[in-house]
Specification:
Largest sheet: none
Radius of gyration: 18 Å
Strand content: under 5%
Number of domains: 1
Helix content: 40-55%
Structural class: mainly alpha
Order of helices and strands: HHHHH
Number of helices: 5
Shape: globular
């Protein structure tokens, strides 16, 4: 009987610990202005606009090399849903068998989300 209580206690601690990791309080977008060139473009270049994906030798149907291309991806290709892994095409998708393992950190997604909320300025 004591073994079951220990198991339940450890399981409960595991669930609480995992939930705390996901419960990151997001920074308010009104605290600062996000820039395409300083904030968003480096994230896209490091994680999306690589050669095999949305870069120069892209296998994807579109590239993400310029402001215009990223803006179009936000407006017409559901970029935010893709990087949040909310749609049918989660990105980045380096390992199709474990797409969640490749998800961008929430802090980087928040930067792109704030830039979108602030009007997707080309600055």
């Amino acid at each position: 009987m004591p073994k079951i209580f220990i198991f339940i206690a450890l399981l409960s601690i595991g669930f609480i610990a995992c939930r705390k990791d996901k419960a990151v309080s997001p920074e308010s977008c009104s605290l600062r202005t996000y820039s395409f060139s300083a904030d968003v473009q480096p994230i896209i270049q490091a994680n999306c606009a690589i050669n095999a994906c949305h870069g120069t030798n892209a296998n994807a149907p579109f590239t993400l090399l310029s402001y215009g291309q990223v803006d179009t991806a936000v407006r017409f290709h559901n970029l935010l849903r893709a990087i949040k892994h909310e749609g049918n095409t989660p990105m980045p998708r380096i390992d199709p068998f474990q797409p969640a393992a490749n998800k961008l950190p929430d802090s980087l997604i928040r930067i792109i989300s704030c830039w979108v909320e602030q009007g997707r300025l080309n600055n």
